[in-house]
Amino acid sequence: MNKERATTYSLLAHIRNTGTLAKGPIDIFIPLVKRALSNMNSKGINKGKSILEIKKETDELYGLDFPIPALKKVLNEICYEVNDEETTRFVLHNDLSFSINQYTFDDFDNILEKQEKEIEEIEQLFEQFCENSELEIKNSESIFKFIEKNKFNLSKYISHNKDLNGKDYTAEAQFIEFFKRIPPVYEKIKNIYLGSIISGYIEYSPDENKRQVKLLLDTNFIVGLLDLNTPESTHTCRTLIKIAKQQGFKVMVLADTINETTNLLEKKAQYFDKSFLQKKVNTEDVYNACERRNLSKTDLERIADNVEKSLKEFKISTIPYTEKLKNEAKFTEEYKNLQEYRSTKIAALHDAMAILFIRKERKNKRIRDFDKVNAWFVNNTATIDGESFHLREGFQPETIKADDLLNILWLSNPQITDSIDGQDLAEIGLTSTIALTLSQNLPKAKILRELDDNIHKYAEEKISDEDIVRVATRITNKQLKDIETLNLLAEQNKEEFIKRLEDEAKKQKEIEDSRIKNLENVFNTLSLRTDDLEKSKQEYEQKSKSIDSLIADKNLEAEKLKNELFDEKNEARRIKREIWIDNEVKKWRRKSWILFFISIGVLLGISIYLLFSSQWNISRAIQRFKVWQSDFIIGNILSILSFLFMAIVLYLIKDKYWNHSNIKSFKSELKIPDELKELKKPSS
After folding, report:
1. Is a pLDDT exceeding 60 seen at residue 643?
2. For residue 52, which of 102, 10, 92 has the smallest C-alpha distance?
3. Degrees to nearest 5, angle at CA 237 with 169 and 219
4. Which of 34-43, 313-322, 507-516 has the largest mean confidence?
């Protein structure tokens, strides 16, 4: 995606967020086409033989492909808006020739200029992020191609566009995941994403005829529905069910899918106590959700036992008798192909059954138009076989991702704001794309489980949880790929295995430290933006003094800029404040570690003295220690030292790391420096 298109997406999000679509979704493009006509007029073009000339201008200005029917509809609306009895500014003739008469439109020039700067800012931040993370990028604009990735997914369904939009976006996904913590940047990214989806209005003219649609849910959709995936995934699945019910869709599940879901959760429960690495590598893993929700192994087993009951609560019907379907599915081409992609033949057969069921519901008809599809197999991850299941020979596939279906339903009926608004949609879409990108090339679950077991067997006491998390991060980021070699090393050389893990953890820590150190550059960037706002505000106020008739409007705009400036300053303070609090917590914990090492030193000193006085004979030293213990005074001193170490020193360390109420209490009692406190908005 070029920068012009990214700017266009930001503008579309701005228009939608600040206006209303009174007549229909296509009206959102009227300001863009008005600006294109104004541009043409300023170049001395006052007439043309075809609206193709206008299309060329709009396509170049915005990086979008405006379909002729949509453009014609927009131009007719512009004729109605800009012409009156006294002046005719634009005319579209019956033969689609046109004439422009002294037409200017500059309503969004200032906003576009600001958004162009923001696009450059995101690109620069992406370059800086990759540089500090040891990530190579061929083109810094790839961050924008990644943001619009979902738009291309939708285009395959609604306009038969087969552009794959690239393959590996690991660096881009990591960038957006990192900057989720910095709202001023993340909000701009969300607006570009939302604008990319909104741009689908010009490609999609939904059929207004209502038809009965059936949704068959996949196992991973049910896992998300039960809140055993990410929070965003749960929101997606539950929102889709809600909207589907509003639209009169029939939502169902195969009995085999319930069994597969139950077996999956039972297997997860079986390895519950042996899993640490997996949940850190894959944010969509069931173990990750269990940790987030504080679920025990027993809780997970209970959920597994009640899958069917839970689905009934969502009013999802079950298809009980599937033997005939199963027997037919065994002889399908899909079953043969899916065995290459699924972990077991049972899983491949399940998906082949679902596809066959959808095909039967469609009466074996191949359908080109999305709106004519009456049945979908809905999953919550990637499509079953990557791109090969998308629009084969221009026909709709049997499967669809939950967030893609949600996006298209939103496009077909943007008034569904009670169920989901644009910002929620952007959050869902971005999070789904990030998770899918980072999990796409992860090692197989079996290999990760083997590494988990090896860490438990050989390195659990040698390497900290923090270092294991760093190793997991390197696996997720595809910086550590040879997992099978690492597992082999664990069996052959325990010491080398531990050293390799420590080396990988050290590399990741260096990257993280570098990021934190260079985060100041981000603060400076945000500070510059704040200064720009202050400067704009002052210039605006000075100009307003010379034009009496516009004083009220300009004061209003100045107040808006002032509030925007205030919010950005507070956001910068919040980020710095959180870093300061984290440093104070580290200092607080450090005191306990100092006490720990002093205690260890004392105990070590006593041990060395015992050995020295016993001529380094361990048996004599043990006998001497027993004599000490039997002595009333010395025995009591040793007991007190042991009690102090176990009951106080170790307790302090535990209390400062795992007692969340204690940590929260410490943070609440910190005296925040004045320069980091939240600014209070002055009363007007």
Report:
1. yes
2. 92
3. 85
4. 313-322
Residue showing tokens 């034009």: 547
Q: How far apart are CA 112 and CA 612, in angstroms?
A: 80
Q: How far apart are CA 241 and CA 315, in angstroms?
A: 9
220 CB burial (10 A radius; 0-12, 13-18, 19+) = buried
- Chain-centroid distance of CA 100 in Å reads 45
The answer to whether 403 and 236 are in contact (CB under 8 A) is yes
Please indicate whether residue 585 or residue 34 has the higher confidence score (pLDDT): 34
Edge-to-edge strand ranges of the sheet holding 98-100: 47-48, 98-100, 90-92
Contact residues for 569 (Cβ-Cβ < 8 A; gap 6+): 530, 679
Which pLDDT does position 383 carry in this prediction? 45
Positions of E strands within 326-480: 375-379, 399-401
Burial readout 663-677 (b: 16 or more C-beta within 10 A, e: otherwise) = beebeeeeeeeeebe
Residue 536 clears pLDDT 80, i.e. is over it: no
Q: Shortest CA distance to 411 belongs to which of 559, 207, 564, 209?
A: 207
CA quadruple 259, 260, 262, 267: dihedral, nearest 10: 140
Helix (H) or strand (E) holding 100: strand 98-100
Give a three-class secondary structure readout of 429-457. Answer: HHHHHHHHHHHHCCCCHHHHHHHHHHHHH
Give the phi and the psi of residue 672 in degrees, each rounded to 5: -70, 130
Q: How many CB atoms sit inside 10 A of residue 209's CB? A: 7
pTM, entire model: 0.65
φ/ψ region of 294 (left if φ > 0, alpha if ψ in -120 to 50, else beta) reads: left
437, two tokens: 């990108």
- Let me know if 626 is exposed, middle or buried by CB neighbors in 10 A (0-12, 13-18, 19+): exposed
Q: Single out the residue of 587, 596, 582 nearest to residue 646, CA to CA.
A: 596
Q: How confident is the model at residue 214 (pLDDT cuts 50, 70, 90)?
A: very high
Confidence tier at 251 by pLDDT (50, 70, 90): very high
Neighbouring C-beta atoms of residue 36, cutoff 10 Å: 23
The Cα 597–Cα 469 span in angstroms is 25
**Chain mean position to CA 633:** 63
Residue 603 contacts residue 641 (beta carbons within 8 Å):
yes
Listed range (401-405, 420-424, 508-512, 556-560) with the worst mean pLDDT: 556-560
CB atoms within 10 A of CB 60: 12
The structural domains of the chain, ordered by start, are 3-108 (no CATH), 209-416 (3.40.50.1010), 445-546 (no CATH), 576-676 (no CATH)
Q: What does 42-93 look like in DSSP terms, one character per residue? A: HTT--EES-THHHHHHHHHHHS----HHHHHHHHHHHHHHH--SS---EEE-
At 156-192, the pLDDT tens digits run 777 666 555 556 788 888 888 888 877 888 888 888 8
To which H or E segment does residue 575 belong? Answer: helix 551-613
pLDDT in tens, 591-605: 777 777 777 777 788
356-365, 536-545, 575-584, 662-671 — which is least confidently predicted? 536-545
pLDDT of residue 684: 47
Confidence of residue 330 (pLDDT cuts 50, 70, 90): very high
Asked whether 71 and 33 are in contact (CB, 8 A), the reply is yes
